[in-house]
Amino acid sequence: MADPRAVLLIKSAGAASVTVALTLIGLKLWAWTATDSVSLLSSLADSLLDLIASLITWFAVRVATEPADREHRFGHGKAEAIACLIQAVIVSGSAIYVGITALVRLLSPAEISDPATGIAVMAGSLVLTLGLVAFQRYVVIRTGSIAIGADLVHYKADILTAIAVLAAIFLNTRLGWYAADPLLGLVIVVLIFASVRTITVQAIDVLLDRELPGEVREGIVEVATAHPAVVGVHDIRTRSAGASQFIQFHLELDAELTLIGAHQICDEVEHAVRQRFPAAEVIIHADPCGVIEPRDPFQ
Q: Is residue 85 exposed (0-12), middle (13-18) or buried (19+ Cβ within 10 Å)?
């Protein structure tokens, strides 16, 4: 069962993301109509798709944090990874739209109208996004949620986007560099695609059951072999799904132990591993020491 505090944090981060996206859309729509800035339009388009992505994330984390049931014995954690892939597609669409708009404006540069409004709105959106990113970073550190992590990645890109838009408005209005607006719009496209790559890799790793980091495996061996009755550990396999982790391994025990004795040792080791990794479900197979059997080659 997932930690209730982690579940609350994940759901709160999803709700905060939707709220911020709605706020930014309203502000940027007003600013774009006042300025006719292509970089601001690209930022608005990005925020519109951010809202869709955030809604998907919000729904996915609610599904992912549901406890296991009869049809889903390992829980629903992979809903987060599916949401990440959907986000990647949506954000890619945003990048393509921004790129086309920027190229069209590059062919016919124009002066930005009402730059003061654009600067005020983008500065405000920058502050809001910084606050959201700080909260999301905290949630990811505490829970390991990849769906919130994906949201964090593209909102980090939004911070750079806001800075690029502010620079474009300044260069356009103060220095007369009209091409700066669409050129910085193209920079935003590159940033968005960089975010997409990160989101996609994280999602695929979870869906393909990529092993947890090496330090987790080292921690499992350290904890298990600390028990005085454990002779060795092998065939360690790990994976994650949402905020949950799954750990399984074989314990080498004295061949003369009774079944009850081996069971008690496995329970004690399982408890110790869960103390080190609270989000983990642990499965242990007891092997009598000295018995030769095929082993996992990926150790």
A: middle
